[in-house]
Specification:
Length: 152
């Protein structure tokens, strides 16, 4: 497995950090690119889709961890920010994420027997280097979560 990771790192494109005058969107995109690279190389997840949308709701990454479907929210912040990325997912954002996950699950041909929600928190330094923290299995879904009809 380690040989495969080394080969991936060798051939994966080098990410260029955003400059000091980069927009929030560019920094967010860089954070998502770092998260994708982290998921592939460190966590060995298979990326299914990036930035899946349903109406105004969006899921940053949808991955597969063996047989578990993983919904991932990527939060990119300045290093030393008062509020960490994982803490910035408020009640409103959780509702939107839950609605998006529910709609994605509803549209699957075969239901996913197991799924979870993760957050990847990226702290960008002034040099553009990202420190990545992964929070697995964040409680977004209740124990008795079910998938109703998709609302459009």
């Amino acid at each position: 497995m380690k040989l495969l990771q080394k080969i991936r790192r060798l051939f994966s494109p080098k990410l260029r950090p955003p400059g000091p005058d980069a927009t929030a969107g560019e920094k967010g995109r860089f954070g998502e690119d770092l998260a994708v690279q982290f998921c592939r190389e460190e966590l060995n997840y298979r990326i299914i889709v990036r930035n899946w949308r349903c109406g105004h709701d969006e899921i940053d990454l949808i991955c597969r961890d063996n047989k578990v479907l993983v919904f991932i929210e990527v939060r990119t912040r300045k290093a030393g920010a008062r509020i960490q990325g994982v803490q910035s997912v408020d009640r409103r954002k959780r509702r939107k994420l839950k609605r998006a996950c529910r709609n994605y699950l509803y549209r699957l041909r075969e239901p996913a027997p197991h799924f979870r929600f993760d957050i990847i928190d990226i702290a960008l330094s002034k040099k553009g280097v990202g420190k990545i923290r992964h929070f697995a299995n964040i409680q977004l879904f209740s124990k008795h979560f079910s998938v109703p009809i998709c609302s459009k």
